[in-house]
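ingest -> fold -> write
write: protein_1
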Amino acid sequence: MKFGKVEGSEKIDFTMPADLPANKILLQGNGYKGKPNVYVGSPSWNRADLKNFYPKGTRDELTYYASRFNCIEMNATFYSNFTPHIIEGWHNRTPAGFRFFPKVHQSVSHFKRLYDAKTPTDLYLDGIAHLQEKLGMLFLQLPDNFSPANFETLKNYLQEWPSGFPLAIELRHFGWYDGSWDTEPLYEVLEKYNITQLITDTPGRRDVLHMRLSTPSTFVRFNSINADADYARLDEWVKRLKLWVDNGLENIYFFVHQDLEKPMPLFSGYFIKNLNEALGTNLKVPIIQSTNSQMELF
C-alpha cells in the first residue's frame, strides 16, 4: 500500500486515537454477545509479495496461501474484471471457511466517481458473485480528491447498493476528517445502509485512523513500516479490538500490508497469535520458510 508512505517514520506519533462514545452506543445497541468472526490476511498471494513464505517448488500459490491464512484482500480486482471461469477457479482452490475481500473496480470508483455508475457496478458484481459463499466484504476505495463536496453523489450511490453484497468504503480526502465538514450526515447514511467505514492505519496519514464504527464490523488496512514500532502498533490494535468485541463487535477483517524487504507473514503471525490469546479464537498462525525446513512463527 503506497498510500500514506513516508521516508523516515521515527518522528511520527503512532499513538492510537481514543475510542469514541458513538462506538459503544452502536455496538451495545446491536445486542450481540457471541464470539466475533475474525479474518486476518495479506493483500496478495503473489510470491513476490510474500518472500520466504512458499516452500520451494510450490506451484499453486493460492492453494498454499489459503492453507495458512483464512482470507485475502484482493487489489487485483481494482484493475481487472476477471472472467467467471477465473473467479470460480479461486473459489475451488480454497478451503471451506476461506473468504475473499475484493476491491471494487476502478471503473466505478475512479472513472465514473460513483456518478451514473450502475452499469460498471453491475458488471463487476455479476463477476465477483461467482465467489459464492466465499465472498467476504467488498471494499470501495475512493480517489484522494473525492471530498465532502461529493457527498450527495456518494449518498445516491450507496442507497442503490444491493444489500446482498457487504460493503466497506475507504474515504481518503482530508476534508472527511479535518473538522471542516459535519460528518454526522455521512454516518447516518452509512448506518442506514449498513456500510462499514474502512479504517486505514498508515504512517503519513494519521487522520484516516479515524476510529469511528458505522456497523458492527471493522475493516482495517494496516500499513507496516518494517520496524519494531509495528509490534507496539499491533499490540494496541489487539487491545482496541478486544474492547470493541466486549461491547458487541461481530466481525473483524484485518489486513497487514508490508514492504518486500521482510516476509509479510512475520507481523501477521505476531498479530494473530496475540489476537487468539485476547479473544479466545483459534486462527492458524502462518509460517515462513527457513533454509531447510518450515519454521512456525512465535
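write: protein_2
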Amino acid sequence: MRIRAVLCFLCITALAGGLLAAAPPGQIRVEVSLVNLFVTVRDKHKAIVTGLMKDDFQVYEDGQPQEISNFSSESNLPITLGILLDTSGSESYMLSAEQSAGSRFLARVLRKGDLAMVMSFDTDVDLLADFTDDRARLNRAINRATINVPGGGSIIAQGPLPSSGGGGTNFYDAVYLAAHDKLADEAGRKAIVILTDAEDTGSKMRMQDAIEVAQRTDTVVHILLVAQDGGDEGVARKMTDETGGRTIVVRSEKNLEQAFDEISEELRNQYVISYSSTNKAHDGTYRKIKMDMKNKEYSALTRRGYYAPSE
C-alpha cells in the first residue's frame, strides 16, 4: 500500500505539470524539474489553517513567480519519519521523559503506510531501529537509548564519516547521516524530529553540510530544543528555518508533550504544492523559494529553497 500511494503521488504531480518524458515502453520517467513543497499554514493566532485552495498561494523562485501545477490538501500521504535522540550527558535529566513522550508521539502520528526509524547520537551515531511500521519495535528502540553509551546500536556512519566520532556530541553528523544515508532514497513526505540542545562538539560535518543534505533530499527538520541552559537556539532555528521545519523550545515535561502535539498536528495538516521551475538550467545552484499568502493574516511554513539538478 505504501509503495502504491507514493507512486500515485509522484505520477499525479508529474502529470499535473506535464512532466512525463518519453521513456521505453512500460517505463515512466519523471523529470526532476518538478519542485514539491509541503506547506503548513497558520493564522495570526498560530492556529492551523485548513480548507485553502490553490489560488490562496503564490510561489516565487529567486523572485520570479511560479505557476502552481499541482495542489492538494491530502493529509494521508505517507510519511517517512526519523526520530533522533540526543544521548549526550547534557540530556540526562530529560531522557526518560523524552522516551515516554516520543513513544506517545509515534502512536499519534503514524498511520497505515507510514514508516519510522530511531537513531541516537552522542560520541557515536547509532541506528536503534531501521525503517518499520512496527510500533512495538520502535518503542523498544526508543527505550533502548542510553546516555553516553557509544556503540550501543548498529553504527550507520558510512561514506565520509568514520564509525566513531572524535568525542563530544555529533549532532551535525547525525542529521547528515539520517538524511543522506537513510532518507535520500525515500519518496513522498520526509521529516526528522530531533530532541537535542543543538550543541555540537564533535562532528566531522559542518552545520551547513547537514542543512544542505536535508535540502537536497527534501527532508524537513523539526527540533525540540531540550536544554537546561538554553542550548544553541540559533543553530536550531537556522536548521529548521532552512528546511521548512520548526524549532520548539522545551523547558519541562509538560512543554515536551505540547511540542510533540504541535509537530503531530503539522505533519497531518500539510498542503502539497508542486511547480515546474521557469529556470530550466541544470546547474546545481541553490534557488530561493518564497511563499506568499493571499490572506496576509496567514503565514506559510515551507522550505526556503532547493538545489537545482545537475547535468
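write: annotation protein_2
The domain at 79-267 is CATH 3.40.50.410 (Rossmann fold).
The chain has two domains: 2-75+269-307, 79-267.
pipeline exit 0
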